[in-house]
Amino acid sequence: MSAVAQHVADLKATFRSGKTRSYEWRLHQLEQLVKLIDENEEKFVDALKQDSGKSEFSAFAGEILFVRAEAMHAIKHLKKWMKPKKVGSPLFLWPCKSKIQPTPYGVMLIGVAWNFPLHLTIGPLAASLAAGNTALIKPPSMSPAYSALIEELIPQYLDNDAVRVHQPQGPDRDELLRQKYDLILYTGSYHVGQIVMRAAAEHLTPVLLELGGKNPCVIAEDAKLDATANRIIDAKFLNAGQVCVTVDYILVHESIKDALVAKLKEKVEYMFGDNPKESLAYSRIINSHHYERIKGLLSDGDIVVGGQCDPEENYVSPTVLDNVSLDSEVMKDEIFGPILPVVSYKNKQDILDIMARYGKPLCLYIFTENTAFADDLINSTESGSVGINSIMLHMPNHDLPFGGVGESGMGQYHGKYGFDAMSHMRPIVNKPTWLDIKQSYPPIADRDELDQRKKAMRFLMK
């Protein structure tokens, strides 16, 4: 038996034992998650910097702070989430009682992306444990320091019979997706998402796919440019643009394009200084492959600000591109790096036509003071989420779901939405035996009795 098959067999045995179903077990695991984060913050910061050059600020704000809050939110609301929900029953079923009881799926596979590995491990894991599942975590191979650290820490803090970390090697890589899981959550690229979904289909395993896409930021002619530029630059260059929910490109009304471009340049220089390489808030590109890919996109427009590169550090400075062709490489796929192309539009149809080139994005961002403009655009498009005069602010709100639609993913989690997504909502009907009407059963004596029964059923089922 392969290593991964043994992990899955052990996790199934643990789930069948029933130990993960109790409130006490789930609560303790969530409390241990918080302890794991609190006691190892510096280790996580160091590992993330070692793997990808992630700044301490990005590690703290985008990973540590977020997942701690996610686990604490689950702790606070766990008892309420687990409680069966009583629902009504139609008259024709009387007497009976109906309820919906959240039930864990079983063994869950959590596939983690490299750009925010702690965030994308602990966030889903908190929801999975809250729901009473066991979990196999597949950490990102492109983040070896983080992967080694999480593999070391998980068994020190969590129930090792219920949570395992496994980094496949050699033939074991193919074995990972051949196993029969009860639920799979994968965060990463569209193409790997297809592979995961095909593998899941072999066992009819449900999947949650959190993928990416080219997220547009539409800027209307009435937008407040100073605040708009502040919010775009702050969000776009977090983790050197390696964020699936950040802005990919700007669509700005042609009448204000020059003014916006000037503001974007001003804000890049203000936030990151004359030499962004020295900024405490700026990160590096994950590896040389992606460094070369991103560097190759710099020639697809006029560089307004940025464009500096250093291969020894996989460094590309925060860059804004103007005069970008829609047919250029930078406008073909998700950039996933610190390049911000600016494209102009004349009217609403231009916006819709450009967005239609890329499928349904994970996020749509709109900057305007006109509520009617925003509502019209929202009602004319599809996206996983929408931010009006904001970017990425839906992420830390535990009362909002996070997820894509179409090419950007399927399923949603965060907060209670994560608990619900990782639970089977099991309907339960309890009908007492003190009343058992014989006319509910065959035989039906004749046509008159059949007509009478149909009439009664029509009345009761109104």
From TrEMBL:
<dbReference type="InterPro" id="IPR029510">
    <property type="entry name" value="Ald_DH_CS_GLU"/>
</dbReference>
<keyword id="KW-0520">NAD</keyword>
<feature type="active site">
    <location>
        <position position="244"/>
    </location>
</feature>
<feature type="active site">
    <location>
        <position position="210"/>
    </location>
</feature>
<feature type="domain" description="Aldehyde dehydrogenase">
    <location>
        <begin position="5"/>
        <end position="426"/>
    </location>
</feature>
<dbReference type="InterPro" id="IPR012394">
    <property type="entry name" value="Aldehyde_DH_NAD(P)"/>
</dbReference>
<dbReference type="GO" id="GO:0006081">
    <property type="term" value="P:aldehyde metabolic process"/>
</dbReference>
<comment type="similarity">
    <text>Belongs to the aldehyde dehydrogenase family.</text>
</comment>
<dbReference type="InterPro" id="IPR015590">
    <property type="entry name" value="Aldehyde_DH_dom"/>
</dbReference>
<dbReference type="GO" id="GO:0005737">
    <property type="term" value="C:cytoplasm"/>
</dbReference>
<protein>
    <recommendedName>
        <fullName>Aldehyde dehydrogenase</fullName>
    </recommendedName>
</protein>
<keyword id="KW-0560">Oxidoreductase</keyword>
<dbReference type="InterPro" id="IPR016162">
    <property type="entry name" value="Ald_DH_N"/>
</dbReference>
<dbReference type="InterPro" id="IPR016163">
    <property type="entry name" value="Ald_DH_C"/>
</dbReference>
<dbReference type="GO" id="GO:0004029">
    <property type="term" value="F:aldehyde dehydrogenase (NAD+) activity"/>
</dbReference>
<dbReference type="InterPro" id="IPR016161">
    <property type="entry name" value="Ald_DH/histidinol_DH"/>
</dbReference>
<dbReference type="Pfam" id="PF00171">
    <property type="entry name" value="Aldedh"/>
</dbReference>
